[in-house]
Amino acid sequence: MKRLLRTATVTLYVAVACSFWACGRDLPQILRSAVVRDPQIAEAQANQRVAQSTLEQTEASRWPTLKAGVNQAVLNSKKDYKFTPGVEANWKLYDFGATGASIERDRIKTQYYKNKTSETAEELAFKIATDFLEALKARESLKVAKENLARHEHIVKQLRIILEYDPGRRSEFTQADARRIQVQESIISYERALGLALRRLARYVDPPVTESELKDPFANMPITDLLNKYKVSEEDALAHPSYRAQARELESIEAALKVAERSRYPVVGLKAEANTQDSAVYLTMSADVFNKATAPGIELQRHQAAAAQAKLAQIYDSLVQRAEVAALQMREDQSRIEISEAQAKALEQVVVDYEDQFKIATRTLLDVVNAYSELASVKQLRVQAQADLMQAKLEYLSATGNLGQWAKIPDVSDENAKAEGRKKGEASPDAKEGKGKKKGKGEPPPPLTLTSVDDDEAMELESANADDAYGDEPYTGPETVFVRVSDSGELLLESEGHPLENIKSESRSVAKNKAKGNNAARKTAAGKFRRK
């Protein structure tokens, strides 16, 4: 029975899997699986980590440095060739904000690379979707060409039968067969275009996209719904990944300009040296008295900032223009589709009429094959108009920065949120902790614990305090005492289970009636606490 259940379960899984693959994947599913695993995204995420490491390195420059070394004289008039170990410490005290500007520059750089990762995902999704639409267009064109080939083969078959009884019509047969070969040549070109498009898709998609999976991804999204859901506005343009990345680039250049300007100011530091023979502490100050490269470096940053500002305006205009042009093109392509469909319907009737008239010799073969070619051309125009409409919708989504949202592509720029299952925009626990530390928030540091009193000494201290306020309580072992510093700088003691005020007041009363043995015990404990 168990074996039958196991077999039935496996069969059910296989059936579900087969039905899934039979249904095929749509374009959003293909984009979601392809974008996340693409090497371009891995490279962009690596650049994010590089920028984060650079930021941490710049932030660490605020800390003092400590070096240890050893010297040994090779030639010495005193004949002293001993090793001289020593340490050297350096601490930058004040640099007129140069370090802070460098940190701000690198922090903006991390945001730039994060937006650059989102931009890479959008561009990659657009590239894959474009190849998908090209493959779909090639398949539809191939379908129309095969229908045209079927018509030519039908007329050639009829002419072959007629030729058996009327050899004088061989010229018509040859003409029809030549047209059929011409259609076959067009089929080969469409098959080549389809194969190349699928091969380009196979570079990004695994498993490769099959011909059966090619279908209109915007079939259930009319133009009005698309325009109403994703509107062209200034806010959408400012939120586009390309615009945000360029805006962060401009901010980083402005921060670099500030760093270059602050580098002209002096740097005040503290230097300490110590070895087996001497030790000293120095207050140092260094500044560039003459450095001809400083002024051109500042001008360079200003020119780069102007170029970045111009590029930012260019990106904004390009995004708005792309979206507006795509919206106009969608309406135009829809009209082209309606006209071509009506024209194709009329030409289909013309073809039927010409075939009937050809049978009764009122129409020539040339009229029939020309009608075939005209019908195929109109249907190809309909395929082209449909492809242009899909491409215009794709352009519109890309220009408004909503392609990733439409395809539900995960945020590849936030690796930690993806790994920890956090929502987009939510700070990581490390970031929250770091933010609290920077602002001085969070829990206070753990109190000091009096751990230098041994068990025997604790017994002695407890017996010495037998007449104190806590003398009526049984001894339960060494008690943990917490030491805190009040706002006025007074050292306060706190015991587990006893309020701070009670201990403070009771300690004052106990201090007045303290015996000599109590004083000796307290001196012993206090000495051990200071040594600790």
UniProtKB/TrEMBL annotation:
InterPro entries: OMP_efflux, TolC-like. SUPFAM superfamilies: Outer membrane efflux proteins (OEP) (SSF56954). Pfam families: OEP. It comes from the Bacteria. Residues 413-480, 493-532 are annotated as: Disordered. PROSITE patterns: PROKAR_LIPOPROTEIN. Gene3D superfamilies: Outer membrane efflux proteins (OEP) (1.20.1600.10). The keyword Membrane applies. One of its GO terms (molecular function) is porin activity. Residues 330-395 form a coiled coil. GO terms for cellular component: cell outer membrane; efflux pump complex. It is found in: Cell outer membrane. Residues 415-434, 495-509 have a biased composition (Basic and acidic residues). Keywords: Cell outer membrane, Coiled coil, Membrane, Transmembrane, Transmembrane beta strand, Transport. Residues 516-532 have a biased composition (Low complexity). Belongs to the outer membrane factor (OMF) (TC 1.B.17) family. This is Outer membrane efflux protein. It comes from Cardiobacterium hominis (strain ATCC 15826 / DSM 8339 / NCTC 10426 / 6573).
